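User: I'll paste a sequence; please echo it back and then give the predicted structure.

Assistant: Echoing your sequence first, then the prediction.
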Amino acid sequence: MTLSRIGGLASLICAATYLIGFALLVTLLAPLGFGTGQIDPAAVVEFIHVNSGLMIAWNTTIYVINALALAVLVVALSERLSPLPGWAAVTRAFGLIWAALVLGAGMIANVGVERATQIFPDDPEAAADIWTTLHAVELGLGGGNEIAGGVWILCVSIAAARAGLLPRIANALGVLTGLGGLVTVFPALGDTAGAVFGLGAIAWFIAVGVALTLRDGVAPADPGGRVA
């Protein structure tokens, strides 16, 4: 199997982790305030105490598995951009930075669950305080803003569009998603921009995954050098 196909599978795995994350966010975790900015730490640690396995699995999926698949995709896409060596190097750097931040956020999130579970039976208030602190670190690393991801997806899409290395739909989705990620730097627009980034990233990962997997990363170009 070629690196391109492996990268395509990794991209589809990234999309799957986002879909799983959203599914739990709007169902089991919705009453706790996740995704609304109005989380009740006391309710969260009580939920964690009963469902620590579920929370560990959720964090592992949306952060750890996502980060590992993302690292593979970053390398595959940088190789895809090899006709533009400068862009390839820049995108690899930004992509690996993002993957590292996501992985770090996942490890912090799981530590928060473990610590809350240990402390809750004796001191629920202290458990809530510790979880809140670690959750803030988690959000700072990657769960609460999408700057690193936005920069990477935007750079990959612009470079791929210039050289006709990915389908037009993937490049268009990438530009929209990347811009959405950058806008999360503004707190007033964070929730809306985050939703644009998240949903756009799902579509982008799928488009890239299909292009790299089913077509082995090779797409016919029109006379203008653009991917058909």
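The radius of gyration is 19 Å. Residues 85-119 form the longest helix (35 residues).
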